[in-house]
């Protein structure tokens, strides 16, 4: 499958080169798109060097300002759609998403429309999280499932694959959320549009280097977005899946 791994970056100079090598070691057929938000630590320059060294395999999309995770992914998705990729994979630049799982995600993506790398498919599979963080994440997913009725164990996972037919239909330009709740909104849009979502188990490892981008504003947005999505569900169904057809993919 013609796939590209979309990696948003902001101050990931210590991680990017090592991550690219791991991606290619586990999935040599994929391409990489680095979406850099004008990192002051030189991440963009490192990405440009890697693109020159791996011509046609690594690409760079430079943005002029830090606008958030959601906006970075949407820019990357639109770039990939314009260039004919069949599948787009979200991946963090901090090694919390192990490239080891790319093969299983790509395999699942041959049949499913959306593949979620799930931390909660087989119990709780996270490493280096304090109990408070585990409870916060687990509770957030339970809250999202309760409010939105999504049949997904890990609605907030940022390690996932989308087929192009999903991104072409979910109206990327109208996606409102921008923080971690971006993942929730994208999952919700794909589900009500009638696409098949599957999960593959992963082990999530807390970032090895740099600083976490979690903030009170991100947490607050994550609480509001599920409620807003549920209130807008009927209208969104009419827009995204007026015929009520469910994808035949399994």
UniProtKB/TrEMBL annotation:
**Per UniProt, which keywords does this protein have?**
Glycosyltransferase, Transferase
Which named protein is this?
Dolichyl-phosphate beta-D-mannosyltransferase
Q: Which organism is it from?
A: Capsulimonas corticalis
Q: Has UniProt tagged this entry with the keyword Glycosyltransferase?
A: yes
Sorted alphabetically, which Pfam families does this protein's record hold? Glycos_transf_2
A cellular component term (GO) from this record? membrane
GO BP, sorted A to Z: glycolipid biosynthetic process
What family is reported? Belongs to the glycosyltransferase 2 family.
Check the record and name the Gene3D superfamilies matching this protein.
Spore Coat Polysaccharide Biosynthesis Protein SpsA, Chain A
Q: Which InterPro entries match?
A: DPM1-like, Glyco_trans_2-like, Nucleotide-diphossugar_trans
Which residue spans traverse the membrane?
A: none
Q: Which Gene Ontology molecular function entries are recorded, alphabetically?
A: dolichyl-phosphate beta-D-mannosyltransferase activity
- Has UniProt tagged this entry with the keyword Transferase? yes
């Amino acid at each position: 499958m013609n796939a590209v791994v979309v990696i948003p970056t902001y101050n990931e100079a210590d991680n990017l080169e090592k991550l690219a090598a791991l991606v290619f070691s586990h999935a040599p057929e994929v391409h990489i798109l680095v979406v850099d938000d004008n990192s002051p630590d030189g991440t963009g320059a490192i990405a440009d060097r890697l693109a020159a060294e791996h011509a046609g395999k690594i690409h760079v999309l430079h943005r002029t300002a830090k606008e958030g995770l959601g906006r970075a992914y949407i820019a990357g998705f639109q770039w990939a759609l314009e260039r004919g990729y069949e599948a787009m994979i979200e991946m963090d630049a901090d090694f919390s998403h192990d490239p080891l799982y790319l093969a299983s995600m790509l395999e699942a993506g041959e049949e499913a429309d959306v593949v979620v790398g799930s931390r909660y498919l087989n119990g709780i599979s996270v490493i280096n999280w304090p109990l408070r963080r585990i409870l916060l994440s687990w509770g957030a997913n339970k809250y999202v499932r309760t409010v939105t009725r999504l049949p997904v164990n890990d609605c907030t996972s940022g390690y996932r694959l989308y087929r192009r037919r999903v991104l072409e239909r979910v109206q990327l330009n109208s996606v409102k959320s921008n923080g971690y709740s971006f993942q929730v909104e994208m999952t919700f849009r794909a589900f009500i549009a009638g696409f098949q979502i599957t999960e593959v188990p992963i082990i999530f490892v807390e970032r090895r280097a740099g600083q976490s981008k979690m903030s009170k504003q991100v947490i607050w947005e994550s609480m509001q977005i599920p409620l807003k999505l549920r209130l807008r569900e009927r209208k969104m169904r009419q827009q995204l899946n007026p015929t009520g057809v469910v994808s035949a993919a399994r």
